[in-house]
Amino acid sequence: MTQKVAVLGTGKIGEALLSGMIRGGWAPTDLMVTARRPERADQLRTRYGVTPVTNAEAAKSADTLILTVKPQDMGALLTELAPHIPADRLVISGAAGIPTAFFEERLPAATPVVRVMTNTPALVDEAMSVISAGTHATAAHLTRAEGIFATVGKTLRVPESQQDAATALSGSGPAYFYFLVEAMTDAGILLGLPRDKAHDLIVQAAIGAATMLRDSGEHPVTLRENVTSPAGTTINAIRELENHGVRAALIAALEAARDRSRELAGGNG
Ligand SMILES: NC(=O)C1=CN([C@@H]2O[C@H](COP(=O)(O)OP(=O)(O)OC[C@H]3O[C@@H](n4cnc5c(N)ncnc54)[C@H](O)[C@@H]3O)[C@@H](O)[C@H]2O)C=CC1
Ligand SMILES: O=C(O)[C@@H]1CCC=N1
User: Fold this and answer.
1) I need a surface site. Which of 78, 149, 255, 258 has the fewest CB within 10 A?
2) Which residues form the Pyrroline-5-carboxylate reductase catalytic N-terminal domain (predicted)?
3) ipTM topping 0.95
């Protein structure tokens, strides 16, 4: 019998995953969604042909529940779900920060829980989804979670102790690149380029650099050295990046993201 999957709290990440599952061949009839607002539920039904249900209905009838509400809303959702969850449901959390133990304490004994940190490039099937097992999740549960998240990009298993770091790197990571593109587009304006041209130049440079990082097999240092001609332009820019402490700023920024993920552990941060 086909597995049924429900996405509970279908906002940005929930919808990105849902759309990817459908692109990846899941039948909309095997997918359920829950949303707080009825207009949102209707929108998802119209867009994807999926069935909106209540959280309790999802708990009763889906084999896998994927919880994509904000960490601050997770406690309330679990209180709502707990009375309706049969023992064999796989519960996948997509929330930042919250440990699997938080779910295990609030759900029926021995509920298998898998924690996943994905990212918004799920929308274009280029997600990085980092996956960890809770106490009662078996290899089969991890494989099931991987099968779902593999429809939207790459997956990687890590020990749960590495999830807060993964959240800082790949979960939030796309935002850092958007920030850099925004800043470099501003630089293009300063240098006299029209905004649309500056945007296109820097986006294509980013796509080219990302593709080489993924496909060339070269270390990032080698790739950067290959751009940096003696007494050329690039080294002048690199000196300014070092003078302004960009490397240290990035290390501090990711440490702050990791620390915030840890703070969210209580689920009500
Ligand atoms: N936005 C991102 O880049 C990433 C977000 N995440 C995680 O994904 C989760 C969701 O984030 P977003 O999608 O950005 O937030 P969002 O606010 O777009 O989506 C959350 C949705 O849950 C709904 N919701 C809340 N309580 C509900 C309930 N009891 N029943 C039904 N629906 C309910 C809200 O109405 C909202 O539509 C968070 O836990 C976040 O940590 C993980 C990776 C990346
Ligand atoms: O900012 C956040 O909390 C979420 C988790 C990772 C990316 N976005």
Assistant:
1) 255
2) 4-97
3) yes
Nearest to 195 by CA among 185, 204, 203, 205: 185
**Which residue ranges have their beta carbon within 6 Å of ligand 1?**
8-9, 11-14, 34-36, 55, 68-71, 73, 76-77, 94-96, 117-120, 171
Do 38 and 121 lie in one domain? The reply is yes
| pTM of this structure | 0.96
Q: Which CATH number goes with the domain that contains 159? A: 3.40.50.720
Q: Determine if ligand 2 sits within 6 Å of the CB of residue 171.
A: yes
DSSP 82: G
The Cα–Cα gap between 157 and 82 comes to: 27
Q: Is the pLDDT of residue 158 over 90?
A: yes
Hey, which residues does 132 pair with through a beta bridge?
Answer: 115
The last residue of one of the domains, among 165, 194, 212, is 165
Residue 74 · residue 67 · CB < 8 Å: yes
Query: Is residue 138 located within the same domain as residue 58?
Result: yes
